[in-house]
Amino acid sequence: MIEAELIYLTGWKSSWRLKETFVNMLRNLVWATSKHDVYFMNNYSLMHWSSLLQRGKEVLNVAKPIVPSMKQHGSLSQSVSRVQISTMAVKDDLIVAGGFQGELICKKINEPEVAFCTKLTSADNDITNSVDIYNAPSGSLRVMTANNDCTVRLFDATNFALLNRFAFHWSVNNISTSPDGKLVAVLGDSPECLLADTGSGKVIHGLEGHLDYSFSSAWHPNGQILATGNQDTTCRLWDVRNLSQSLKVLKGNMGAIRALRFTSDGRFLAMAEPADFVHLFDTEAGYSQCQEIDLFGEIAGISFSPDTEALFVGVADRTYGSLLEFNRKRNHSYVDSIF
To answer: Does the keyword Repeat apply (predicted)?
Structure first.
């Protein structure tokens, strides 16, 4: 069970603004690095919320001109300003964010300056739809991006050199890498989802079953199950050991499945619609048991804490913009001691 608690954001409710033209765009704007540390976007501010201190702190203001601190010869690095963040990811001490005009921003959490930023494309509206931070099989940290220009790009997370780029036949809306760093799920403006090699971009298998465009994906920690979310209001589960057909189909209520997250122990899968509904599935019950969270407003992102004890939901509503925390309830039983 999940017990709900509203995190009170003093002075931020009314200042969380997303233009109406963007409220239904792809986004993942909430990321928890612990039960007490959450990163999220509030208008042009990337914020850190501490539930222990009960206060927030601005980590980065993307309305101002951003000048990268790393300027290496041949680097794609360039200044950006007034970036409307479309997606983000946090891993270890690195924050990576993408923008609605194709921007990419990479910042170390404990450093004041932005290490790297650039515009991935020159065309307008080539949104950076998805970013992922992962460890390659070699152990090296990598950053992967997906854009409306039908391209997935791979960067070294140390010097931010562009290592490779993979072209597809449709706009890429989402990417997610497998736990072992060998495979990447590529989803976009096509009913077919693809599994590709992270190093070469070679397509290994196509996943057929969805009826419309796809927007989200997540890997079970065991690396065997992939969840994909689609405009057809369903999430499909795929067993990578047998990709001939989906393992199970999970149904939403009204809208596309815009965000998917597994807990780090693999026990629960969270599935978010564009607004109002987040569904929690018990994986140990074969995904047959579901708890529905019915809230009000556009959902800006979902994230489990690494210890699995909390689920954070961002609400990007003009009036009710807020960050919600849902705590995991456990049933404890004790064995009587007999002396």
So the answer is: yes
Q: What residue type is assigned to position 11 of the chain?
A: G
Rg (CA), the chain: 19
Q: Which of 15, 25, 99, 21 is nearest to 274 (CA)?
A: 25
Tokens 């979902």, residue?
302
Query: What Å distances lie between residue 217 and 151, 213, 236, 288, 328, CA to CA?
Result: 17, 12, 9, 19, 23
Would you tell me how many other CB atoms lie within 10 Å of the CB of residue 320? 14
Query: Tokens for 74?
Result: 């041949």
Local structure of 22: helix, strand or coil:
helix
Residues 38-84 have pLDDT tens digits of 999 988 999 999 988 888 999 999 999 999 988 765 568 889 999 99
Would you say 23 and 40 are in contact if contact means Cβ atoms under 8 Å apart?
no
User: Residue 331: which pLDDT band, with cuts at 50, 70 and 90?
Assistant: low
Q: What is the Cα–Cα distance from 116 to 121, expressed in whole angstroms?
A: 15
Query: Helix, strand, or coil here: 98?
Result: strand
pLDDT in tens, 320-329: 778 999 998 8
Residue with tokens 């976009």: 188
What is the rounded distance in angstroms from the CA atom of residue 228 to the CA atom of residue 187?
8
Residue at token pair 């003093």? 10
pLDDT in tens, 240-288: 999 989 999 999 999 999 999 999 999 999 999 999 999 999 999 999 9
User: Within a 10 A sphere around the Cβ of 14, how many other Cβ atoms?
Assistant: 11
